[in-house]
């Protein structure tokens, strides 16, 4: 046959993809370098739709990259830097092998390095793009800053991460834009609002953890390298929007001493903040005028005004209160959260630098303790457990302190990230919270309920028996034909509730329409309703379970009391 | 190297020759005293030697015996080393002393240490004079040089050394700040740049402007959020229902795993029918040994061997047959055309059914379209298969009811955030799932007993 026949796998998807090894060889890089380059440039492998075509008939599982992406990679300047580094390592190894120490020292002094600034500018052309990706960067930086400085990971990276995370926390404190906190068994989730973007990040607890072995450290280190650079630039820009000096300087009464950066960062969290300028007008997003009816605008504006007022109130949650943190509470997290809402915080002097006042200060309003009991207690302050702070932040109001006293069983810590829809099950604690927010005070009612619970059962029985007796009496009288004591009196006009009447009319109409549906349509309608009511049914199931548990626990309590 | 060495030797030989001449003359004087007496009197035997042609260059060095001169010179050198000069030049007092017999016993004087003695110079030859130390700078010369340098500096011309040093300093090649230096500086990266005034083609060719990033790379590979908040049951102090819901989820995944294992075990289990019974064992052993069965087999084979039906023999088709076939074909075609015409006319009456059919088909396609769109949306959130290994969902972090601690102080964190982040990166299709590389041996390990142990019985 002639050569004009179309051959298989020469055009189409087979030529759009390239396997990982081929791509690596095209760039003449080692596998580790290739992975690092892909991570830094943001080039990810693709899963093609028709793997067999791309793989030229074979079904072996391979990693594929788009050919255009790899061609784009070839123009990257840091590929040259990787190759230089490889040669540098080779020369250094030779010098060590030949015991040429002078050469080795000289080579070490001229170690090749590369910068990632142009890559960040290329991947995030505007500042808002970068802000959208900062969740990941923050979580990674906070994670790395808690690593032990053993040398397994570059100590410099850990220190840089610590510095950037402290700077970010400082910014959030200045902006007062922390919205939600959630303490999980994994770590602490924070959510804040920065320049209109909602940012969620995860911070591990400060306890020592052993590291899992099946995590690729090189990959994580490369991601961290990229993210630290990104976060550094973002921090600079954010500080610039607030007209603050970057990097933040430490001014303290003690003479300037060269401190380990760890302590320096504690300085930043503690010493820097009293010296910041007082709160000024932050840039707020003005309401965007929308095309629409006047009515809509009025409503929306009213809503936004209300939201802004709520926000202002929320930001001053702990203003004017003075807190003291005991030794066993997580100091950094609590200091951050409290300062975000305007409180003054301090701790024991021997713990860390930056404590402003001592335990014995009389003006302390709240003392955060996590012990089962405390011997010495001052009168003018509340002794609370740390969960009170977090719950107040999530509830956006100061919760009653009695539930969080020392030694008291804490109420459950609810997640603020859960949005309950209409039919879903709402736990009773959340209902209590919502009620509190609306301004009712159901705790007193609850106390009464608890006291009466033991008697209520007996009372109910009594009531029922009374009713029964009455009915029996009336029946007897009628049977006897006597005039019953019940008389007919002129009726009273009940005020018609217009809204209720409308709702009832609507419900009637709906019921009629449902009755008049065709069988086929009714079948579909029933199916839909079944699905909708599923959540309601589940909620009922959950509440029944909860009730059962509560009763069981009450029974236990009674038994204990009796004993 | 050989030539330079011979040159060096020749040079030294020439220098020595001059010194030797002087000392030879001194030694030939009658009263010359030698340190070592020559016992041989070899001077008498000097005349009887083999006759050699001394005109050849080769023989100048070969057959010239300078042993006597060398001896003498060694003697002279020894004298100089031991006493600092020729013995003949010394005065009597320096060489001899009158032994009066003084026995002044020095009181146990501290003898110098042997190591100190070893370290003292062992020759009396004085060290040579350092000429350079005695060189006096020529004041005039120095003054002139300084003036010249001043004039040049005033004009702006630097001396050569400074020029070379400055040329070596390439701008930007000073020690670059490492990427992870904790004290590194940042700047405003998103500052609006000054627009490039140069030609864009020039900028591209000289690599001052980087290649444009393709638009496809700005699309994220997954729509999942970067940080997924844990379920409310994972709180350190959860409320009852959410904790139960989380436990239920964990329970269900475990049950599914168990089920899969059980299914596998069931499929691989040995069936009771496959077990060997005595009868089947006996039959297998006896197979092919009994004669009756052999005859039956042979009979069966014979029956199967005969062919069934007559074989067809090909005959040539006649003209008639060909014409007939052609006519048949034409008739078929006509019939088909008629049928087609009738059908298209009758379709007018089948409009209702046709439209019903069309509606049904449209509904099907729309249903399929919605299903496909849903599938696409779902795939945007799923972890894709990017390599050899599949994505393994991470275990749910959940603390059992008895592990729950009511207080933050006694909390034992569950799960590692490092692993969580790693899995999140895999889930969002940013990296492919990989496992740790196993240690593979190229050659098999061989264990050999040592000779000593082999001998022990």
What does this structure look like?
The complex is a heterodimer of chains A (563) and B (457). Chain A has 563 residues and is of the alpha/beta class. Chain A is built from 20 helices and nine strands. A four-stranded parallel sheet of chain A has the order 7-6-8-9, with helices on one face. In chain A, strands 3-4-5 form a three-stranded antiparallel sheet. In chain A, strands 1-2 form a two-stranded antiparallel ribbon. Chain A is extended, with a radius of gyration of 34 Å. About 10% of the residues of chain A have low confidence. By secondary structure, chain B is mostly helical. Chain B contains 15 helices and no strands. In chain B, helix 1 crosses helix 3. Chain B is elongated, with a radius of gyration of 57 Å. The model of chain B has no long low-confidence stretch (mean pLDDT 86). Chains A and B meet through helix 5, helix 8, helix 10, helix 11 and strand 5 of A and helix 9 and helix 14 of B.
SSE map:
The complex is a heterodimer of chains A (563) and B (457).
Chain A: H1 13-16, E1 17-19, H2 20-27, H3 31-41, H4 51-54, E2 64-66, H5 67-73, H6 78-97, H7 101-109, H8 117-123, H9 127-132, H10 134-145, H11 155-175, E3 178-183, E4 187-194, E5 197-204, H12 217-241, H13 261-272, H14 294-315, E6 322-325, H15 331-340, E7 344-347, E8 366-368, E9 382-384, H16 387-395, H17 428-438, H18 442-480, H19 498-515, H20 519-562
Parallel strand pairs in A: 6-7, 6-8, 8-9
Antiparallel strand pairs in A: 1-2, 3-4, 4-5
Helix pairs in contact in A: 3-12, 6-7, 10-11, 10-12, 11-12, 11-13, 11-15
Chain B: H1 2-28, H2 57-62, H3 67-83, H4 92-95, H5 114-119, H6 139-155, H7 160-168, H8 200-205, H9 240-268, H10 278-286, H11 291-305, H12 319-346, H13 351-381, H14 417-427, H15 451-455
């Amino acid at each position: 046959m002639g050569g004009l026949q179309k051959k298989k796998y020469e055009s189409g998807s087979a030529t759009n993809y390239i396997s990982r090894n081929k791509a690596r060889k095209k760039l003449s890089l080692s596998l580790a370098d290739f992975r690092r380059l892909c991570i830094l440039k943001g080039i990810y492998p693709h899963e093609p739709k028709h793997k067999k075509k791309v793989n030229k008939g074979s079904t072996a599982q391979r990693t594929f990259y788009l050919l255009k992406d790899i061609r784009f990679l070839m123009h990257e300047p840091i590929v040259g830097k990787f190759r230089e580094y490889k040669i540098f390592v080779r020369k250094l190894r030779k010098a060590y092998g030949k015991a040429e120490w002078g050469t080795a020292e000289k080579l070490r002094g001229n170690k090749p390095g590369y910068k990632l600034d142009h890559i960040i500018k290329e991947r995030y052309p505007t500042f808002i793009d970068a802000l959208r990706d900062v969740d990941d960067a923050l979580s990674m930086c906070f994670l790395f800053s808690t690593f032990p400085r053993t040398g397994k990971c570059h100590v410099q990276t850990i220190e840089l991460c610590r510095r950037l995370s402290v700077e970010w926390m400082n910014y959030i404190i200045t902006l007062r834009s922390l919205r939600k906190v959630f303490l999980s068994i994994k770590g602490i989730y924070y959510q804040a609002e920065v320049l209109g973007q909602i940012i969620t990040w995860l911070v591990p607890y400060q306890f020592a953890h052993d590291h899992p072995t099946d995590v690729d450290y090189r990959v994580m280190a490369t991601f961290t390298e990229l993210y630290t650079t990104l976060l550094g630039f973002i921090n600079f820009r954010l500080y610039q929007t607030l007209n603050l000096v970057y990097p933040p300087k430490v001014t303290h009464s003690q003479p300037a001493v060269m401190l380990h950066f760890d302590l320096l960062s504690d300085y930043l969290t503690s010493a820097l903040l009293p010296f910041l300028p007082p709160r000024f007008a932050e840039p707020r997003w003005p309401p965007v005028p929308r095309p629409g009816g006047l009515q809509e605008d009025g409503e929306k504006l009213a809503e936004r005004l209300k939201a802004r007022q709520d926000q202002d109130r929320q930001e001053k949650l702990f203003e004017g209160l003075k807190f003291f943190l005991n030794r066993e509470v997580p100091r950094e997290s609590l200091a951050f959260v409290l300062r975000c809402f305007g409180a003054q915080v301090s701790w024991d002097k021997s713990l860390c630098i930056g404590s402003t006042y001592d335990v014995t200060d009389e003006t302390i309003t709240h003392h955060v303790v996590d012990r089962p009991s405390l011997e010495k207690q001052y009168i003018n302050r509340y002794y609370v457990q740390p969960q009170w702070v977090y719950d107040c932040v999530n509830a956006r109001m100061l919760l009653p302190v009695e539930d969080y006293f020392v030694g008291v069983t804490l109420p459950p810590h609810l997640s603020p990230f859960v949005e309950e829809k209409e039919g879903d099950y709402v736990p009773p604690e959340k209902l209590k919270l919502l009620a509190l927010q609306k301004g009712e005070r159901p705790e007193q009612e609850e106390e009464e309920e608890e006291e009466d619970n033991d008697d209520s059962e007996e009372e109910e029985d009594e009531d029922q028996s009374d009713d029964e007796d009455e009915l029996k009496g009336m029946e007897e009288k009628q049977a006897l034909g006597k005039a019953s004591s019940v008389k007919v009196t002129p009726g009273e006009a009940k005020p018609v509730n217009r809204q209720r009447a409308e709702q009832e009319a609507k419900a009637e109409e709906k019921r009629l329409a449902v009755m008049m549906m065709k069988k086929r349509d009714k079948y579909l309608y029933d199916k839909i309703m079944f699905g909708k009511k599923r959540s309601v049914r589940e909620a009922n199931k959950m509440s029944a379970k909860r009730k059962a548990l509560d009763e069981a626990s009450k029974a236990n309590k009674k038994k204990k009391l009796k004993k | 190297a050989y030539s330079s060495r011979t040159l060096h030797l020749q040079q030294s030989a020439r220098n020595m020759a001059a010194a030797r001449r002087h000392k030879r003359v001194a030694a030939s004087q009658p009263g010359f005293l030698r340190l070592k007496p020559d016992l041989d009197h070899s001077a008498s035997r000097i005349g009887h030697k083999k006759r050699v042609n001394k005109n050849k260059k080769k023989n100048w060095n070969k057959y010239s015996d300078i042993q006597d001169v060398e001896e003498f010179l060694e003697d002279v050198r020894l004298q100089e080393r031991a006493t600092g000069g020729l013995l003949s030049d010394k005065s009597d007092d320096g060489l001899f002393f009158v032994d009066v017999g003084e026995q002044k016993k020095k009181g146990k004087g501290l003898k110098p240490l042997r190591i100190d003695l070893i370290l003292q110079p062992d020759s009396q030859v004085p060290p040579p004079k350092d000429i350079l130390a005695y060189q006096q700078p020529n004041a005039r010369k120095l003054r002139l040089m300084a003036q010249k340098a001043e004039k040049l500096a005033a004009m702006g011309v630097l001396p050569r050394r400074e020029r070379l040093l400055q040329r070596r300093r390439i701008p930007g090649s000073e020690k670059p700040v490492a990427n992870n230096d904790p004290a590194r500086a940042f700047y405003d990266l998103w500052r609006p740049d000054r627009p490039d005034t140069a030609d864009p083609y020039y900028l591209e060719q000289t690599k001052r402007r980087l290649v444009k990033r393709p638009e496809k790379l700005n699309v994220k590979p997954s729509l999942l959020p970067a940080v997924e908040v844990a379920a409310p049951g994972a709180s350190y102090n959860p409320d009852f229902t959410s904790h139960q819901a989380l436990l239920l989820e964990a329970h269900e995944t475990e049950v599914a795993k168990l089920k899969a294992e059980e299914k596998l075990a069931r499929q691989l289990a040995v069936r009771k029918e496959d077990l060997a019974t005595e009868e089947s064992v006996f039959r297998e052993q006896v197979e092919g040994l009994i004669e009756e069965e052999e005859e039956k087999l042979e009979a069966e084979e014979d029956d199967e061997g005969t062919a069934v039906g007559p074989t067809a023999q090909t005959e040539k088709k006649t003209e008639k047959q060909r014409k007939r076939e052609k006519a048949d074909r034409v008739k078929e075609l006509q019939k088909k055309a008629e049928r087609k015409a009738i059908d298209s006319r009758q379709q007018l009456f089948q409009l209702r059914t046709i439209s019903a059919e069309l509606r049904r088909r449209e509904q099907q396609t729309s249903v399929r379209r919605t299903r496909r769109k849903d599938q696409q949306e779902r795939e945007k959130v799923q972890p894709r298969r990017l390599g050899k290994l599949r994505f393994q969902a991470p275990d749910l972090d959940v603390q059992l009811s008895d592990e729950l601690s009511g207080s933050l102080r006694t909390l034992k964190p569950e799960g590692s955030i490092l692993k969580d982040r790693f899995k999140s990166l895999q889930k969002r299709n940013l990296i492919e799932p990989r496992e740790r590389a196993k240690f593979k041996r190229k050659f098999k390990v061989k264990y050999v007993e040592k000779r000593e142990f082999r001998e022990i019985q």
